[in-house]
Amino acid sequence: MSNLRETADLFDKIIKDTGITKYKYTVTNSEKRELNLEAGDFKLFRTVFSNSGSIKVFKDNKIGSASGNDISEEGLKGLASDALAAAESSPEDPAHDIGPKVEPHVFKQGVLEPDIDKFIERIKELLATIEKEYPLVKVFQAVGSYDRWNWFSRNSNGTEFEGYGGQYGVMIEVCASDGENTTGMDGAGVSMINLDTPIIELGDIRNHLADIEKSIKPDTVEGKFDGTVIITPACAADFISMVIGNYISDGVIIDGTSQWLDKVGEQVASDKLTVRLDPFDERINIGERATSNGFLSEAVTLIDKGVLKTHFLSLYAANKTGRPLVKNTGFDLIIEPGDKSYEEILAGVKKGLILGRFSGGSPGTNGEFSGVAKNSFLVEDGKIKNAVAECMISGNLGDVVKNISAISKEQICDGGTVVPYIAVEGIVISGK
Fold first, then answer.
1. Where does the pLDDT of residue 39 fall: very low under 50, low under 70, confident under 90, or very high at 90 and above?
2. Which of 177, 192, 213 marks a domain boundary?
3. Please, are residues 394 and 400 in contact by the beta-carbon 8 Å criterion?
């Protein structure tokens, strides 16, 4: 990989020669070593190197941006020229800005020198364990990768950040079959920064494998009812992401459509719910260290025991609305655990679903959602009855977080998020 500091010095000269005085940019080198297996056989092992560059130019309260994968001298000249042209033709908006000067920082995270042989052995071990312990599961594809990157960022206020990172990742696509019936495809994945633990024990891989084996002969749900839905961790992360997008993100605060526009400091959810974005949590492999708008990243609590603590606003949105800036542009999601085990929560469900995945369109601005319950199971009298097919769920995101009845002690850590099971009352479940 090339010397990014030299590339950055060259970019600085090009920018000044172009007449640009206010800017921020990032240049990146990355390396991917990828291993593909299909039907149990190794099909591909390759190493791919790539470069990228991006720049934002500010001129007379206007902003222009450009990005590309050529960071040669000619490529950088093109980026600077394109961004300046875009700024000159864009509308004025004084809310556009860059962060103030921050002293130089270098960040190093993860595994920078991989053990590829051990990684391959861990993948082989994973496949062998699936074959032995989950005989009905067929691994359609397994992809293992080691990713390493180096990025360098500067802005015209004198901020300079450099980051180095590396991690392993595994993704599997599976189905299950008993010879007569076959499920649809399902997937599971994790990232890791060491190889100390068998891959099958990480994240929720075992849960996915067990669930898909139990899904070979799904039943249809009869009728329509309000029930308890236990949202699995991966799905719960998706729902909380939708809540953030619908109620506290840039767009809905700027245009005033958020249902939580003036709710900071007020109870908006169950007191069981605490949501943090914490790039420094030890369970997060590669947490954000510097934001895209030029600040050192900070951990932030969005919801504390049901109380909305802040909107999730970028520098532009903060300037536009006069509301507080959040110095965090990643999604290192932590949902705090509850006081009941998953089994205790399950035992308390009279009738409802375990929701493995939600497939539906984006919720409306009022939070209304409707979609198909995928990889899900009917629960009656505290017992899992069967996998379900052709089952719909609907509700309102605001009601979902208000009507949380329990959160599990257990949390699933996949390397990028830490999320428990969340039980919600009153979601509409519709079958045939």
1. low
2. 213
3. no
